[in-house]
Amino acid sequence: MTQILQTPFGFASTSAEVLVGVHLSGTRALVTGASSGVGIKTARVLAGAGAAVVLGVRDIDAGKEIAARISESTGNRDVGVGRLDLADLGSPRTRTAEIRSRILLPDPRRGRGSSHARAGP
């Protein structure tokens, strides 16, 4: 039997409401369409919750300006920009590979609490 997940959130809920009390430090988020509208709002809320955020944008200069505003408004200095054009099928692969090469993952051979890390994928 399928169990329905029930939450206090609905169609009118905002990302800020959903993330109240959620701490995302230690996580990385890639936000597409982050140069306008919902993309900016989503990136700002994720950064405010402590996530390292990469803005996936076509226009790098506009993205840098938005990243600076998000960093200033949230106090999170780990907001970056990467060129991402979803009309070009190679662009997401390139961006993902670049992000993975910069992420340090815990080394499972040393246990969860270890300060030793290895470069991902």
What report would you give on this structure?
Helix 3 links the parallel strand 2 (52-57) and strand 3. Helix 2 (37-48) crosses helix 3. The protein has a single domain (25-110), classed as Rossmann fold. It has 121 residues and is of the alpha/beta class. The radius of gyration is 16 Å and the shape is globular. It has 4 helices and 5 strands, in the order αβαβαβαββ. It comes from Streptosporangium lutulentum. This is NAD(P)-dependent dehydrogenase (Short-subunit alcohol dehydrogenase family). Residues 98-121 are annotated as: Disordered.
* Broad CATH class: Alpha Beta
Taken as a percent bin, the fraction of beta residues is 15-25%
CATH architecture: 3-Layer(aba) Sandwich
- Cα end-to-end separation: 36 Å
Main sheet attributes: strand count, strand direction, barrel closure? 3 strands, parallel
Pfam families: adh_short (PF00106)
InterPro entries: NAD(P)-bd_dom_sf, SDR_fam, TIC32
Protein name: NAD(P)-dependent dehydrogenase (Short-subunit alcohol dehydrogenase family)
Region (Disordered): 98-121
Topology, pairings included?
Elements: H1 15-18, E1 28-32, H2 37-48, E2 52-57, H3 60-74, E3 79-83, H4 90-102, E4 104-106, E5 117-119
Parallel strand pairs: 1-2, 2-3
Antiparallel strand pairs: 4-5
Quick overview:
With about 120 residues, this protein is α/β, with parallel strands linked by helices.
What tags apply to this protein structure?
SDR_fam; 121 residues; 5 strands; three-stranded parallel β-sheet; two-stranded antiparallel sheet; Rossmann fold; 18% strand; NAD(P)-bd_dom_sf; alpha/beta
